[in-house]
From TrEMBL:
<dbReference type="GO" id="GO:0051301">
    <property type="term" value="P:cell division"/>
</dbReference>
<dbReference type="InterPro" id="IPR005234">
    <property type="entry name" value="ScpB_csome_segregation"/>
</dbReference>
<keyword id="KW-0159">Chromosome partition</keyword>
<dbReference type="InterPro" id="IPR036388">
    <property type="entry name" value="WH-like_DNA-bd_sf"/>
</dbReference>
<dbReference type="GO" id="GO:0006260">
    <property type="term" value="P:DNA replication"/>
</dbReference>
<dbReference type="GO" id="GO:0005737">
    <property type="term" value="C:cytoplasm"/>
</dbReference>
<keyword id="KW-0132">Cell division</keyword>
<protein>
    <recommendedName>
        <fullName>Segregation and condensation protein B</fullName>
    </recommendedName>
</protein>
<keyword id="KW-0131">Cell cycle</keyword>
<dbReference type="GO" id="GO:0051304">
    <property type="term" value="P:chromosome separation"/>
</dbReference>
<comment type="function">
    <text>Participates in chromosomal partition during cell division. May act via the formation of a condensin-like complex containing Smc and ScpA that pull DNA away from mid-cell into both cell halves.</text>
</comment>
<comment type="subunit">
    <text>Homodimer. Homodimerization may be required to stabilize the binding of ScpA to the Smc head domains. Component of a cohesin-like complex composed of ScpA, ScpB and the Smc homodimer, in which ScpA and ScpB bind to the head domain of Smc. The presence of the three proteins is required for the association of the complex with DNA.</text>
</comment>
<dbReference type="Pfam" id="PF04079">
    <property type="entry name" value="SMC_ScpB"/>
</dbReference>
<comment type="similarity">
    <text>Belongs to the ScpB family.</text>
</comment>
<dbReference type="InterPro" id="IPR036390">
    <property type="entry name" value="WH_DNA-bd_sf"/>
</dbReference>
<keyword id="KW-0963">Cytoplasm</keyword>
């Protein structure tokens, strides 16, 4: 795998947190001049390719992959379109992980799920089910997320302690990365318990 591909892949998975040159050097083992040269090549590649949706943005010392400004209308429609529809299985899984592990970074959510969660996290923020709760004091200053009061209303809960217990695990730490599935299992149990009126009503809202 070429240095350019390594850097591009790292910037992709880091999402909106991005990475600094120092971060990229630590992970790839490349020297700073090589990283800067490849970042410049990457920026030129995106600029030259009119069929590429991406561009490289640098803010202070942090580099991020972002969509080109000209695509903002279609991106906006993408994020706004699900607002009147039910939560997808992927959204429920991300929401589950955040609910049981909060506060948590998007990268930690990715590690648990094994896939990128950037767009799903952004959708959940738009739906007011989660919100940023500050940043970690570590390289890249990643955002941490937590559930909102609206999350409690949406699922008919009075407090977080009312979350259904995780089946087959006493604590989130014992769930071994299966929080998403366990959360859905817990709510399925609630749906089948007969005490599900609030849950069903909230799903329709």
């Amino acid at each position: 795998m070429t240095p350019l591909a390594q850097i591009e892949s790292l910037l992709f998975v880091s999402g909106d947190e991005g990475m600094t040159v120092a971060d990229l050097a630590t992970v790839t083992g490349l020297l700073r001049p090589a990283i800067l040269a490849n970042l410049e090549r990457l920026a030129e590649k995106y600029t030259a390719d009119e069929n590429s949706a991406l561009e490289l943005m640098v803010n202070d010392t942090t580099y991020r992959l972002v969509t080109k400004a000209a695509l903002s209308p279609v991106i906006q429609r993408y994020f706004e379109s699900p607002l009147s529809t039910a939560l997808s299985p992927a959204a429920l899984e991300v929401l589950a992980i955040i609910a049981y592990r909060q506060p948590i970074t998007r990268i930690e959510v990715d590690e648990i799920r094994g896939v990128q969660s950037t767009s799903t996290v952004q959708k959940l923020v738009l739906r007011r089910l989660i919100e940023p709760a500050g940043r970690l004091n570590e390289p890249g200053r990643p955002k941490i997320y937590r559930t909102t009061d609206y999350f409690l209303d949406y699922f008919g809960l009075k407090q977080l302690q009312d979350l259904p217990p995780l089946p087959a695990a006493a604590t989130p730490a014992e769930a071994n990365g299966d929080e998403g599935d366990l959360f859905l299992q817990a709510f399925n149990q609630q749906l089948n318990s007969g005490d599900d009126k609030t849950w069903n009503d909230s799903k329709k809202s």
